[in-house]
Amino acid sequence: MAAAFKLKGNEAFKAGDYAAAIGAYTSAIMADPSDATFPLNRAAAYLKLAKYQDAERDCTRVLSRDPKNLKALFRRGQARAGQENFAAAKADLEQVLSLTPNDPAAKAELAKVQTQIENGKKKKRTKPIPDDIIPPTPYRRRVPIEIVDTKDTPKDSKLQASKSSEKAKRQSPPVEEISTPAVKAGGAAKNIQPTEKKTPLIQELPDPPNSTPSNPPQPTAPKSFQQAKEERLNRGVRTVGGGIMKRDGSHSNSIFAPKTVVSPSSEPTSATKPASESSTANGSKTSQPKNRPKPTNAFEFQRQWQADTDNESRWSVLQSIPPESLAIFFKNSMEPPLLASVFTALYTTVSQNPTTRDLVAAYTQNMKKIPRFDTLTLFFSDSEQKTMRQLTDLVDGL
Length: 398
Prior knowledge:
Elements: H1 2-14, H2 18-31, H3 37-48, H4 52-65, H5 70-82, H6 86-99, H7 104-125, H8 154-171, H9 225-235, E1 244-245, E2 251-252, E3 277-279, E4 285-287, H10 298-307, H11 311-319, H12 326-330, H13 336-352, H14 357-367, H15 373-377, H16 382-395
Antiparallel strand pairs: 1-2, 3-4
Helix pairs in contact: 1-2, 2-3, 3-4, 3-5, 4-5, 5-6, 6-7, 11-13, 13-14, 13-16, 14-16
């Protein structure tokens, strides 16, 4: 089976259909993960599509099993050179030449890498200074200064002083003195009358009949708190309160519904108990199952899937979608981590409960019909691919 996929990939590679070749080599890897030829061929196809990171990953997987594999070292050197990681690429190519000193392809590739390294050093040495670092030339300009003579002659200063004093005399009102009688020591002040009184410049006029007094009479202080409360209510003074204005124009003084007061003697009924808890005979509480809406798109499905960590909850979320509608439901929204976790949940479910084998097989087979399924499985890790193969064995094929 793996050999057939390999031949199919080789034909696609020769025809220049590198994407189809990658898919065929991936199927060969899933059929026989122990053969190093399949990831090396897929790395070569990745290099043709300039997917250097994917090519480096496949070569590194082969080198983890066989550190002296020449093709893996050479192609990883090409992939690292494509990512401009010239130091790592040089190390891989030098290791190839240490194993096969007369390899012309490795020598040519190493020469290109050396040239790129030298060009990079020259660019660093001859790199010009940016214009924004060079300080600009300071701009200078001349400003004319006019000198004003502020010295006054003695005659001018005396004339200005006399004019200012005359002006002050004209503006200031005359001041009249009011004489007061002398007070004898030890005498009573009430029997003393002033000997001379002059009319002041400013006299106080009596208030008009309709004018209000400047200081209104202050109310008497209440004797107790209860009296103050009664007076406030009688005056109609309203305290500041909260509330909300409803759409229909009515006003509510409270945002929340009033609480019902339960007397201590009354016992709570079953309707007053929380819906999320139910008491058992011995007093222990058991949680009710989650009541959540059915996901309507891939985003809601992924959010519920990530919120549940146990396999039983995830299986119930997956069962909310019919198996035959998985391809239409997810379309192009499926991602490799989510697909791998779905396979893990399916494998755990059928392992723990063999009676679900037919239903799990239906979900597994319809998962393959999701768009870009072969491309998504390319990004699975070794453990995730192993889980997918074990699931395939349990349900007799994808």
